[in-house]
Amino acid sequence: MKIFQKYANYYDILYQDKDYKKECDFLEKIFEKYSKKRINSILDLGCGTGSHSLILAKRDYEVSGVDLSSQMINRARNKARDNKIKVNFIKGDIRKIDLEKEFDAVISMFAVISYQITNENILSVFQVANIHLTRGGLFIFDCWFGPAVLVQKPQGRFKILDRKSEKVIRFVTPVLDILNHTVDVQYKIIKISKNKILDEVEETHQMRFLFPQEIKHYLKRPALKFWKFVHLEN
85 vs 17, 66, 77, 99, 147, CA distance in Å? Predict the structure, then answer.
Protein backbone atom coordinates (compact mmCIF):
# COMPACT_ATOMS: atom_id res chain seq x y z
CA MET A 1 0.00 0.00 0.00
CA LYS A 2 1.29 3.44 -0.94
CA ILE A 3 1.58 6.06 1.77
CA PHE A 4 1.32 9.86 1.86
CA GLN A 5 -1.56 9.97 -0.61
CA LYS A 6 -4.76 11.17 1.10
CA TYR A 7 -2.70 11.51 4.30
CA ALA A 8 -0.75 14.26 2.50
CA ASN A 9 -3.91 16.41 2.48
CA TYR A 10 -3.71 16.60 6.28
CA TYR A 11 0.05 16.61 6.73
CA ASP A 12 0.60 20.34 7.32
CA ILE A 13 -2.51 20.53 9.50
CA LEU A 14 -1.35 17.66 11.71
CA TYR A 15 2.17 19.04 12.12
CA GLN A 16 1.36 22.74 12.34
CA ASP A 17 2.80 22.79 15.87
CA LYS A 18 6.11 21.24 14.81
CA ASP A 19 8.92 23.77 15.28
CA TYR A 20 10.56 23.61 11.86
CA LYS A 21 12.30 26.93 12.48
CA LYS A 22 14.03 25.58 15.58
CA GLU A 23 15.10 22.47 13.68
CA CYS A 24 16.58 24.64 10.92
CA ASP A 25 18.38 26.67 13.60
CA PHE A 26 19.87 23.38 14.82
CA LEU A 27 20.93 22.47 11.29
CA GLU A 28 22.72 25.80 10.94
CA LYS A 29 24.54 25.19 14.21
CA ILE A 30 25.74 21.88 12.78
CA PHE A 31 26.84 23.63 9.58
CA GLU A 32 28.83 26.15 11.59
CA LYS A 33 30.43 23.59 13.89
CA TYR A 34 31.27 20.76 11.50
CA SER A 35 31.71 22.25 8.05
CA LYS A 36 35.13 23.55 7.06
CA LYS A 37 33.57 25.71 4.37
CA ARG A 38 30.45 27.82 4.06
CA ILE A 39 27.34 25.81 3.26
CA ASN A 40 25.65 27.31 0.21
CA SER A 41 23.69 24.46 -1.37
CA ILE A 42 21.45 21.86 0.30
CA LEU A 43 19.73 18.72 -0.97
CA ASP A 44 16.69 17.72 1.10
CA LEU A 45 16.00 13.98 0.67
CA GLY A 46 12.42 13.09 1.59
CA CYS A 47 11.41 16.75 1.71
CA GLY A 48 7.69 16.08 2.19
CA THR A 49 5.68 19.28 1.89
CA GLY A 50 8.89 21.29 1.95
CA SER A 51 8.76 22.93 5.37
CA HIS A 52 12.51 22.61 6.10
CA SER A 53 13.46 23.41 2.50
CA LEU A 54 11.40 26.59 2.40
CA ILE A 55 12.82 27.95 5.66
CA LEU A 56 16.37 27.22 4.56
CA ALA A 57 15.77 28.80 1.15
CA LYS A 58 14.51 31.96 2.89
CA ARG A 59 17.85 32.00 4.69
CA ASP A 60 19.63 32.29 1.34
CA TYR A 61 20.60 28.67 0.78
CA GLU A 62 20.18 27.13 -2.66
CA VAL A 63 17.84 24.23 -1.94
CA SER A 64 16.57 21.24 -3.90
CA GLY A 65 14.02 18.86 -2.38
CA VAL A 66 13.14 15.32 -3.47
CA ASP A 67 10.15 13.23 -2.46
CA LEU A 68 8.46 10.13 -3.88
CA SER A 69 4.92 11.30 -3.10
CA SER A 70 3.31 13.35 -5.87
CA GLN A 71 0.84 14.75 -3.37
CA MET A 72 3.57 15.93 -1.00
CA ILE A 73 5.67 17.46 -3.81
CA ASN A 74 2.65 19.30 -5.23
CA ARG A 75 1.94 20.78 -1.83
CA ALA A 76 5.59 21.82 -1.47
CA ARG A 77 5.53 23.51 -4.88
CA ASN A 78 2.30 25.32 -4.03
CA LYS A 79 3.75 26.58 -0.75
CA ALA A 80 6.87 27.80 -2.56
CA ARG A 81 4.77 29.58 -5.18
CA ASP A 82 2.41 31.15 -2.65
CA ASN A 83 5.30 32.43 -0.54
CA LYS A 84 7.45 33.43 -3.53
CA ILE A 85 10.34 31.23 -2.38
CA LYS A 86 12.65 29.57 -4.89
CA VAL A 87 13.17 25.85 -4.25
CA ASN A 88 13.67 23.13 -6.85
CA PHE A 89 11.17 20.46 -5.78
CA ILE A 90 11.56 17.17 -7.63
CA LYS A 91 9.41 14.05 -7.59
CA GLY A 92 11.81 11.13 -7.27
CA ASP A 93 12.89 8.07 -5.35
CA ILE A 94 15.57 9.01 -2.81
CA ARG A 95 16.96 5.46 -3.08
CA LYS A 96 17.77 5.89 -6.78
CA ILE A 97 17.78 9.49 -7.92
CA ASP A 98 20.85 11.12 -9.47
CA LEU A 99 20.59 14.86 -10.06
CA GLU A 100 24.12 14.94 -11.55
CA LYS A 101 24.98 17.74 -9.17
CA GLU A 102 26.81 18.02 -5.87
CA PHE A 103 25.69 19.91 -2.77
CA ASP A 104 27.50 21.26 0.29
CA ALA A 105 25.02 19.48 2.56
CA VAL A 106 22.48 16.70 2.23
CA ILE A 107 19.72 16.53 4.84
CA SER A 108 17.03 13.94 5.49
CA MET A 109 14.72 15.09 8.26
CA PHE A 110 11.70 13.91 10.25
CA ALA A 111 12.59 10.20 10.31
CA VAL A 112 12.81 9.76 6.54
CA ILE A 113 15.63 7.25 7.12
CA SER A 114 13.33 5.26 9.39
CA TYR A 115 11.02 4.71 6.43
CA GLN A 116 13.85 2.66 4.86
CA ILE A 117 12.99 -0.60 6.60
CA THR A 118 15.47 -2.87 4.80
CA ASN A 119 19.26 -2.79 4.98
CA GLU A 120 19.36 -2.45 1.20
CA ASN A 121 17.13 0.64 1.22
CA ILE A 122 19.16 2.32 3.94
CA LEU A 123 22.37 1.71 2.02
CA SER A 124 20.75 2.97 -1.19
CA VAL A 125 19.75 6.28 0.43
CA PHE A 126 23.21 6.64 1.94
CA GLN A 127 24.70 6.04 -1.49
CA VAL A 128 22.44 8.71 -3.02
CA ALA A 129 23.56 11.15 -0.32
CA ASN A 130 27.15 10.13 -1.00
CA ILE A 131 27.10 10.87 -4.74
CA HIS A 132 25.46 14.25 -4.21
CA LEU A 133 27.95 15.57 -1.64
CA THR A 134 30.89 17.79 -2.40
CA ARG A 135 34.15 16.70 -0.83
CA GLY A 136 33.99 17.57 2.85
CA GLY A 137 30.21 18.08 2.68
CA LEU A 138 27.80 17.16 5.46
CA PHE A 139 25.13 14.47 5.50
CA ILE A 140 22.64 15.13 8.30
CA PHE A 141 19.70 12.88 9.12
CA ASP A 142 17.54 11.83 12.03
CA CYS A 143 15.83 8.53 12.72
CA TRP A 144 13.97 6.60 15.39
CA PHE A 145 16.51 5.95 18.14
CA GLY A 146 16.48 2.23 18.93
CA PRO A 147 17.31 2.33 22.66
CA ALA A 148 14.54 4.88 23.31
CA VAL A 149 11.99 2.83 21.35
CA LEU A 150 12.79 -0.30 23.37
CA VAL A 151 12.70 1.49 26.72
CA GLN A 152 9.69 3.76 26.21
CA LYS A 153 7.70 1.52 23.82
CA PRO A 154 5.47 3.26 21.24
CA GLN A 155 2.04 4.09 22.63
CA GLY A 156 -1.35 4.63 21.01
CA ARG A 157 -2.54 8.23 21.00
CA PHE A 158 -4.95 10.63 19.34
CA LYS A 159 -4.93 14.28 18.33
CA ILE A 160 -7.86 16.65 17.79
CA LEU A 161 -7.52 19.80 15.71
CA ASP A 162 -10.24 22.43 15.43
CA ARG A 163 -10.44 24.16 12.04
CA LYS A 164 -13.23 26.73 11.97
CA SER A 165 -16.39 24.64 11.62
CA GLU A 166 -14.48 21.37 11.20
CA LYS A 167 -12.57 18.97 13.41
CA VAL A 168 -9.73 16.74 12.28
CA ILE A 169 -9.07 13.76 14.54
CA ARG A 170 -6.08 11.47 14.12
CA PHE A 171 -5.73 8.13 15.87
CA VAL A 172 -2.33 6.41 16.01
CA THR A 173 -1.97 2.71 16.82
CA PRO A 174 1.62 1.35 16.84
CA VAL A 175 2.51 -2.32 16.54
CA LEU A 176 6.07 -3.06 17.69
CA ASP A 177 8.18 -5.79 16.06
CA ILE A 178 11.33 -6.01 18.18
CA LEU A 179 12.96 -8.77 16.14
CA ASN A 180 12.79 -6.82 12.88
CA HIS A 181 13.39 -3.38 14.48
CA THR A 182 10.15 -2.04 13.04
CA VAL A 183 6.91 -0.43 14.15
CA ASP A 184 3.75 -0.53 12.05
CA VAL A 185 2.23 2.88 12.71
CA GLN A 186 -1.46 2.65 11.87
CA TYR A 187 -3.01 6.08 11.20
CA LYS A 188 -6.70 6.83 11.03
CA ILE A 189 -7.88 10.36 10.27
CA ILE A 190 -11.47 11.52 10.47
CA LYS A 191 -12.69 14.95 9.37
CA ILE A 192 -15.96 15.98 10.99
CA SER A 193 -18.29 18.94 10.54
CA LYS A 194 -21.60 19.37 12.35
CA ASN A 195 -21.44 15.80 13.63
CA LYS A 196 -21.08 14.49 10.08
CA ILE A 197 -18.04 12.60 8.79
CA LEU A 198 -16.69 14.40 5.71
CA ASP A 199 -13.61 12.30 5.11
CA GLU A 200 -11.85 9.25 6.50
CA VAL A 201 -8.26 8.17 5.84
CA GLU A 202 -6.40 5.05 6.91
CA GLU A 203 -2.71 4.40 6.24
CA THR A 204 -0.09 2.17 7.82
CA HIS A 205 3.47 3.50 7.86
CA GLN A 206 6.12 0.89 8.59
CA MET A 207 9.02 2.50 10.45
CA ARG A 208 12.42 1.16 11.42
CA PHE A 209 14.34 2.10 14.53
CA LEU A 210 18.13 2.17 14.37
CA PHE A 211 21.07 1.87 16.73
CA PRO A 212 24.32 3.87 16.59
CA GLN A 213 26.54 0.85 15.95
CA GLU A 214 24.53 -0.30 12.94
CA ILE A 215 24.49 3.22 11.49
CA LYS A 216 28.28 3.32 11.80
CA HIS A 217 28.43 -0.05 10.07
CA TYR A 218 26.39 1.20 7.10
CA LEU A 219 28.34 4.44 6.78
CA LYS A 220 31.69 2.64 6.73
CA ARG A 221 30.94 0.72 3.53
CA PRO A 222 33.87 1.03 1.09
CA ALA A 223 31.67 2.60 -1.61
CA LEU A 224 30.86 5.54 0.65
CA LYS A 225 33.15 8.49 1.29
CA PHE A 226 31.83 9.50 4.72
CA TRP A 227 34.80 10.20 6.96
CA LYS A 228 33.28 10.68 10.38
CA PHE A 229 30.03 9.77 12.16
CA VAL A 230 28.83 12.13 14.90
CA HIS A 231 25.77 11.32 17.02
CA LEU A 232 24.03 14.53 18.01
CA GLU A 233 21.12 15.24 20.34
CA ASN A 234 19.01 18.36 19.97
Answer: 21, 16, 9, 21, 39
From the CB of residue 51, how many other CB atoms can be counted at a distance below 10 Å?
25
58-112 pLDDT, tens digit per residue, is 999 999 999 999 999 999 999 999 999 999 999 999 999 999 999 999 999 999 9
For the stretch 150-160, pLDDT in tens is 999 999 999 99
- State how far the alpha carbon of 53 is from the alpha carbons of 64, 76, 213, 232, in Å: 7, 9, 29, 21
* The CATH number of domain 147-209, selected from 3.20.20.60, 3.90.79.10, 2.20.25.110, 3.40.50.150: 2.20.25.110
Please report which residue ranges of the chain form alpha helices under DSSP H: 8-14, 20-34, 51-58, 70-82, 119-131, 146-152, 212-219
Helices (H), 132-222: 146-152, 212-219
pTM of the model: 0.96
